[in-house]
Amino acid sequence: MKIVAGVDGSPTAGAAALKAARLAQGTGGVLHLVSAYGKLEERVIEAEAQELVLHPKDDARRIAEAAAEQLRAQFPELTVHAAPSAGKPADALLTAADEVGADLIVVGNKRVQGPTRILGSIATDVAHRAPCDVYVAHTH
């Protein structure tokens, strides 16, 4: 089973990723973690005669890899891939699901309750457009 989950460094995304890891381990599957990044321009920082170029994709890659490392430590037998994905979070998850041929997308239930559920949430958007099953994890 191929499972996709998104991470952004928040505790709620971490809780959803943990649930995804448990599901992947229980099914003998593979977990694909993605971190979304926007279309912001590169940032150039100059300090002490050196130039550092920062790109949102690099930040997203670091976030995804840090989450993957934590899950690999907890689930040593589990194969966990990590990657950045361009776009809004729901779009990034859907793109990743298409790319890997996912069987399941795991999302958290942040902003699925209260007034924001009417306006939309990542979970709602993914559920409406997913090419596969969607699991909404209780994350708070």
Short description:
The chain is built from 5 helices and 7 strands; from the N terminus they run βαβββαβαβααβ.
Report on this structure.
With 140 residues, the protein is α/β, with parallel strands linked by helices. It has one domain: HUPs (Rossmann fold), CATH 3.40.50. Helix content is 43%, strand content 29%. The chain is built from 5 helices and 7 strands. The chain has helices spanning 11-27, 56-74, 89-100, 116-119, 122-129; strands spanning 2-6, 30-37, 43-47, 50-54, 79-86, 104-108, 133-137. The strands form 2 sheets. A 5-stranded parallel β-sheet has the order 5-2-1-6-7, sandwiched between helices. A two-stranded antiparallel ribbon has the order 3-4. Strand 1 (2-6), helix 1 and strand 2 form a beta-alpha-beta unit. Helix 3 runs parallel beside helix 5. It is globular, with a radius of gyration of 16 Å. 35% of the residues are buried.
